[in-house]
Every structure is written in C-alpha cells, then in structure tokens.
Amino acid sequence: MNIKLMAVGKTDDKHLQALIDVYQKRLGHYIKFELDIIPDIKKAKNLSEEQQKQKEGALILNKLQPTDMLVLLDENGKQFSSVQFSDYLQKRMNAGTKTLAFAIGGPYGFSKEVYSKAQGKISLSSMTFSHQMVRLFFIEQLYRAFTILKNEPYHHR
C-alpha cells in the first residue's frame, strides 16, 4: 500500500519542515509515502470562502487516481487512539487498498465535491491546529502506527 498526504500550501516554518522531513524519512522504512503539496491559490484574497474551497478542491481531486481511497483530515471526523489508528491502517492494507490518500484542506476546509468523493474522515483532535502543524502531527502518527504494527518500542503501551 502507498500512502499519500495532500496539503494545501507549503510549510514556511523551517523548524516544522525539518521535523516533517525527519518523520517522512523514518516512514520510508515501512511504506511508500508521498507528501503532495498543493500550491496556495493565487489572489485568494479576491475570492470568497466558497470560491477558494472550490479551487482548492479541484486541485485535490486532480491529484487522485481512480483507485485511490480518499480520507479527509477533518474536525468532524472519527477520532482514534494511536493503537486504533494502526489497526485502521492494517485493515486498509488487508483490504488491498492500493493508495490511501489523506487530505488536509485549506483554511476554510473542503468543497462539497471533495466531501462527496471522500471515503472517510479522521479528526486528530477536538482542538484546532494550524494546517502546517497538522502535517507534522499526522506524519508522526503514521510513523507511530507502523512502529506499533511492527511491535517496535517507539510507542509505549
């Protein structure tokens, strides 16, 4: 299985990016992982929230292959413990999912089209995090999940 994380806008904090790079490299020991950065919408200040979601949504949907399973990182999604998340990933692998594509939306969330294409929603927390920090937290949780699946000592039960 391949895992893809799509996110709108680049990470402009070099410290966050360095940590993202660390966990992205670690993940490579377990699975093929791709961080796909969708460029910020140009002249977004001239657009309504709905127009911005539409443009970002089209870019997200264009990055998907027909066989990809899309899961949104969304505040209204299902919350997992780290162990439950590792079980979720194992079930996706057992089901033969070719590419599991996770998406982090822009500042206003996702368009209706993206919601209708999604096959699941996951929430990392009831709290709100910056889009840049969510990338780090999610990639670290992916890494943690694979160490759990491999019974490695990174995660303490």
From TrEMBL:
Catalysis: reaction(s): pseudouridine(1915) in 23S rRNA + S-adenosyl-L-methionine = N(3)-methylpseudouridine(1915) in 23S rRNA + S-adenosyl-L-homocysteine + H(+)
EC number: 2.1.1.177
Location, primary (coarse class): cytoplasm
Top-level taxon: Bacteria
Keywords for the protein's UniProt record, in alphabetical order: Cytoplasm, Methyltransferase, rRNA processing, S-adenosyl-L-methionine, Transferase
Keyword Disulfide bond: no
Pfam families: SPOUT_MTase
HAMAP family: 23SrRNA_methyltr_H
Subunit and interaction comment: Homodimer.
Protein name: Ribosomal RNA large subunit methyltransferase H
Source organism (scientific name): Sungkyunkwania multivorans
